[in-house]
């Protein structure tokens, strides 16, 4: 009886120990590459959301409360060839149906959205993941703070919700509005940056 319990227990322990060591080694090998890829993805996304920029300034970070939710954010100034600030690129977090959504938003000096990209989004395939399509993201271009979501025909400063993914649509909009609110209230509409 003891043998019937002891042998599987020891075997399971050895399997778990070897698996843990193996996963640790794999993590050690891939950790730097994953971090490097994240930096490359972020740099490529900056250029997508602020295509008129020639370069980007130093990253600033903070915590901001928007619509009753406090979350971390970061931003970089977007610079022209003369190193003059032409806008900002913000990274904000919101919560969608499938978890955290990390949104990168470009904002020009007039407080208008120049582009939206996702750094992290894990919504339902075929529904919420449609937020990653250009047709959805393009709706934000030219809009200003206070963007709302409409399920039917969007009006002024509104976007059309994704069919079957209103939570994702609202979470994305919240992320973009947070960036616009930071632009106005933290950076003084660009006057202090």
Give the structure's gist in a few sentences.
The chain has 193 residues and is an alpha+beta fold. It has helices at residues 2-49, 134-137, 166-185; strands spanning 55-56, 60-66, 69-79, 85-95, 100-108, 113-120, 148-150, 158-160.
Description:
- The mean pLDDT is about 90.
- The chain has about 190 residues and is α+β, with helices and mostly antiparallel strands.
- The protein has 3 helices and 8 strands.
- It is elongated, with a radius of gyration of 22 Å.
- Strands 1, 2, 3, 4, 5 and 6 form a 6-stranded antiparallel sheet that branches. A two-stranded parallel ribbon has the order 7-8.
Major sheet: size, sense and barrel closure?
A: 6 strands, antiparallel
Contiguous helical run count: 3
Mean pLDDT: 90
Any low-confidence stretches, pLDDT <50, length ≥5?
A: none
What is the share of helical residues? 25-40%
List the secondary-structure elements in sequence, H or E.
HEEEEEEHEEH
Q: Strand content of the residues, in percent? A: 25-35%
Over all CA atoms, what is the radius of gyration?
A: 22 Å
Which structural class fits the helix and strand makeup? alpha+beta
How far do the termini sit from each other? 74 Å
Rough shape? elongated
Give the tally of β-strands: 8
